Amino acid sequence: MKTTTRPVPRWSPKTIFAVHADHAEGLSPSEIAVKRDLPLLTVQAFLRPSEQTCRLSSPYRFRRGRLPDNAAIQAYWLGYIAATGRVCGQQAFTTLVLSIHRDDERHVETLAADLVVGHARVEFVDSSLDGRQAYIRDRSLGEVLTQWGLAATRESLDVPLEYLPPAVLPDFARGYLEGSRLEPPFGGRASGPRRAPARLALAGPAALIPALAAGLQAACGVRAPVLTPSRDSGVRAVFSRADSAKVLACLYRRPARSSPRAAPLAARFAEA
Questions:
Q1: Of 207, 169, 161, 199, whose CA–CA distance to 183 is shortest?
Q2: What are the angstrom distances between the C-alpha of 263 and each of 186, 228, 258, 266, 269?
């Protein structure tokens, strides 16, 4: 099966946030277009209401609106998608492409049920380059994800973590950890971790990993991890042995969502 790989037009999440802030202050779309030097149709697309068509809130709604009741679940899936996904196509052909572990297919179906309004089109295929993949074809979800910094390539990923409340950052981090296929404890061919890793590592784009590591320092009360360049031109953050256990305890104390593959970790660190 083929899907278009034409990149979604890239706009900074901060630019999109500023457009929503201008609109909240009373500016019309045409006035915002002039102020921000943006095409009017682009501004109108940013401002298109998504509350009734997508269960993932935009960065502006997370930051300025009432926090959704399922904010922890949304943050988890955002982290999972940030680790595994990219957004391709445009308009009606917008597609979320996830590179997943084969045992996560049911988990991805839960993702679609949590975030997509109405019937979710989910397809699973094998790629000679990326292994097992899931395709979720939903325009509204794709448009909201682009506001969160998702793009057609992993290198362009730029999730603005400052728009997530600190209370749900561990949920984002748990999703990112479980979606990561190249780092322990969820990377590799194994179905899931049999035990906690001695040293926890998070790897990804340089625009994301340092901010995520800093957020985990504050949320979990740990020291700064060691940051080193990764093999894919990104950054790798490695926590000490003692701090790795603290971070995992922080992430799995009360998991609102978690992959079934994470059951051993959830059982070990679940709050009594």
A1: 199
A2: 12, 30, 8, 5, 10
Q: State pLDDT tens for residues 183-225.
A: 777 766 555 666 667 789 999 999 899 999 999 999 999 999 9
Looking up residue 249, the CATH number of its domain turns out to be 3.10.28.10
Q: Answer yes or no: is 8 within a domain.
A: no
Task: Evaluate whether residue 1 is within a structural domain.
Answer: no
Which residues sit opposite 125 in a β-bridge?
133
**DSSP assigned state of 117:** S
Asked if the peptide bond before residue 185 counts as cis, ω within 30 degrees of 0, the response is yes
Q: Which domain holds residue 59?
A: 13-269
The rounded distance, in Å, linking the Cα atoms of 11 and 151 is 10
Model pTM above 0.85: yes
Counted domains in the chain: 1
Q: Report helix angle 13-24 to 29-36, nearest 10.
A: 140
Least confident of 110-114, 155-159, 188-192, 232-236: 188-192
Question: Which residues have C-beta within 8 Å of that of residue 43, sequence separation ≥ 6?
Answer: 19, 29, 30, 32, 33, 36
Phi and psi, residue 219, nearest 5°: -70, -35
Question: How would you classify residue 88: left for phi > 0, otherwise alpha for psi between -120 and 50, otherwise beta?
Answer: beta
Structure tokens at 37: 């030097």
* Any domain includes 2: no
| 212 domain-assigned | yes
10 Å CB burial of residue 85 (0-12, 13-18, 19+) is buried
Specify the range with the lowest mean pLDDT, choosing from 109-118, 126-135, 152-161. 152-161
The whole-angstrom separation of Cα 247 and Cα 241 is 10
